[in-house]
């Protein structure tokens, strides 16, 4: 029984652990999809949208009932004293009525002849007081609130647009980083092949030198070329480590996480060779940059309306319900303590009259900002049109450059092979072979660069066409 229980726990642990393990094997599409869920920039964009949603809730709540409670307790350590004229009390009953008062001629220092002089100190109220109240406030009308409510919805739309823009950037970043890793790997493979060929050539040349069939400088020339290749391999290995870290960063993975890429440079090339993109239809109003500029224009329009709404009056209603108790001792919760209820219902009307032209200045600023936003929308439309044409041209040129670079590399390989044969047949010098090898290495680098340029220009064209 214990064995079965232990086996069950082990299987459960393995299952749960397997669910938490991060994905580490990616095709390009899988890498982009993973980045759309886990990239740091996507996380920031999602949080910005969530903040905008809460801002909508916050602004909406301003126009809904607001309820607040208050409890006020006072304990006079020393009660304030008020002074009342002693004559007001008439303790000797010398003034019978008002007629007597007005018939008597006042004298300085004693306003009423026969009445007591000076003032009497008196404490009003009790030493301790407590009150509790509940206040309900309701906005009835406020033009700026109605405009502000529309404004936060545009603010939310701006956050969503920014997220869409971020998705395009993340896709481009991951695609470029993924391609760069494959490019570095392919470059290492080519360099290793070149190294193998050079080592074989050097060994054969050393044997020829030993037997007197070749000069020592031929071996030295090959040694120089081999050393350069080895140095480039070491440098590329360091670049490879950085390239993987950069890709992990774009994916939202820990930079030290080992990952495996299932694509090859050749398969990536095949999927990116599509000249049909250069003639694909394009609706500029669907482009994210156009939508961002258009949303900014809507925001500026609402800002102008918001400033104009400040000329309108605002109306608020309120209800205040409370109760209070007074006592010289803290005995407010005794059964015989009397509480006195109160309530009030009212409205408050606020009418803007004169602001020393402050409102007018803000309205004019908003109008200028709207004109600026309209100009930016026009500029964005023009810029996107130009960028699309440039992207189409670049992509077409990239395809042509790739085909030329591929053919040139094949020619360079053929020339290097012939020079290699001629060198060992003794009809060519080591300098001729070295020149052919360097030409081959240069064409190989150009070939790899053309692949990177092709894939990058493809992503740029897709962004220009607003293709996700």
UniProtKB/TrEMBL annotation:
- Name the coiled-coil region(s): none
Keyword tags: Cell outer membrane, Membrane, Signal, Transmembrane, Transmembrane beta strand, Transport
| Transmembrane portions of the chain | none
Is Membrane given among the entry's keywords? yes
The answer on whether this UniProt entry bears the keyword Membrane reads yes
The stretch of residues making up the signal peptide is 1-18
| Record's subcellular location | Cell outer membrane
Q: Which SUPFAM superfamilies match?
A: Outer membrane efflux proteins (OEP) (SSF56954)
User: Per its UniProt entry, which superkingdom is the organism in?
Assistant: Bacteria
What the record says about family reads:
Belongs to the outer membrane factor (OMF) (TC 1.B.17) family.
* Record protein name field: TolC family protein
Q: From what organism does this protein derive?
A: Urechidicola vernalis
Q: What is the lineage of its organism?
A: Bacteria, Pseudomonadati, Bacteroidota, Flavobacteriia, Flavobacteriales
């Amino acid at each position: 029984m214990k064995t079965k229980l232990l086996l069950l726990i082990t299987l459960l642990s393995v299952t749960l652990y397997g669910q938490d393990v991060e994905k580490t094997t990616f095709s390009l599409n899988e890498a982009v999809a993973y980045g759309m869920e886990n990239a740091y920039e996507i996380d920031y964009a999602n949080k910005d949208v969530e903040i905008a949603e809460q801002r909508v809730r916050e602004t909406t709540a301003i126009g809904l009932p607001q309820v607040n409670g208050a409890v006020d307790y006072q304990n006079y350590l020393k009660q304030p004293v008020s002074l009342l004229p002693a004559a007001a009390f008439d303790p000797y009953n010398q003034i019978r009525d008002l007629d007597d008062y007005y018939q008597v001629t006042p004298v300085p220092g004693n306003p009423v002849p026969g009445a007591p002089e000076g003032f009497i100190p008196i404490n009003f109220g009790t030493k301790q007081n407590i009150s509790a109240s509940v206040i309900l406030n309701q906005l009835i009308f406020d033009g700026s609130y109605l405009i502000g409510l529309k404004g936060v919805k545009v603010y939310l739309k701006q956050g969503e647009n920014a997220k869409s823009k971020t998705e395009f950037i993340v896709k481009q970043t991951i695609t470029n980083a993924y391609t760069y890793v494959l490019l570095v790997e392919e470059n290492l493979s080519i360099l290793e092949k070149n190294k193998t060929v050079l080592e074989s050539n050097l060994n054969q040349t050393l044997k020829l030198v030993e037997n007197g069939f070749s000069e020592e400088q031929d071996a030295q020339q090959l040694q120089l070329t081999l050393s350069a290749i080895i140095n480039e391999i070491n440098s590329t290995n360091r670049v490879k480590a950085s390239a993987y870290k950069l890709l992990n960063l774009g994916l939202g993975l820990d930079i030290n996480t080992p990952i495996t890429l299932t694509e090859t440079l050749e398969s990536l090339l095949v999927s990116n060779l599509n000249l049909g993109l250069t003639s694909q239809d394009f609706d500029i109003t669907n482009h994210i940059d156009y939508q961002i500029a258009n949303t900014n224009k809507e925001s500026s329009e609402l800002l102008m309306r918001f400033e104009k709404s400040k000329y309108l009056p605002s109306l608020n209603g309120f209800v205040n319900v409370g109760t209070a108790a007074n006592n010289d001792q803290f005995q407010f919760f005794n059964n015989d303590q009397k509480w006195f209820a109160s309530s009030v219902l009212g409205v408050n009307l606020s009418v803007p009259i004169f602001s020393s032209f402050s409102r007018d200045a803000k309205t004019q600023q908003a109008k200028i900002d709207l004109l600026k936003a309209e100009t930016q929308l026009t500029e964005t439309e023009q810029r996107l049109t130009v960028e699309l044409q440039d992207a189409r041209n670049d992509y077409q040129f990239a395809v042509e450059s790739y085909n030329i670079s591929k053919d040139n590399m094949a020619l360079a390989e053929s020339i290097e092979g012939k020079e290699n044969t001629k060198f060992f047949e003794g009809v060519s010098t080591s300098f001729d072979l070295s020149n052919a090898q360097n030409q081959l290495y240069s064409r190989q680098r150009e070939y790899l660069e053309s692949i990177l340029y092709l894939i990058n220009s493809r992503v740029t064209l897709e962004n220009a066409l607003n293709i996700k």
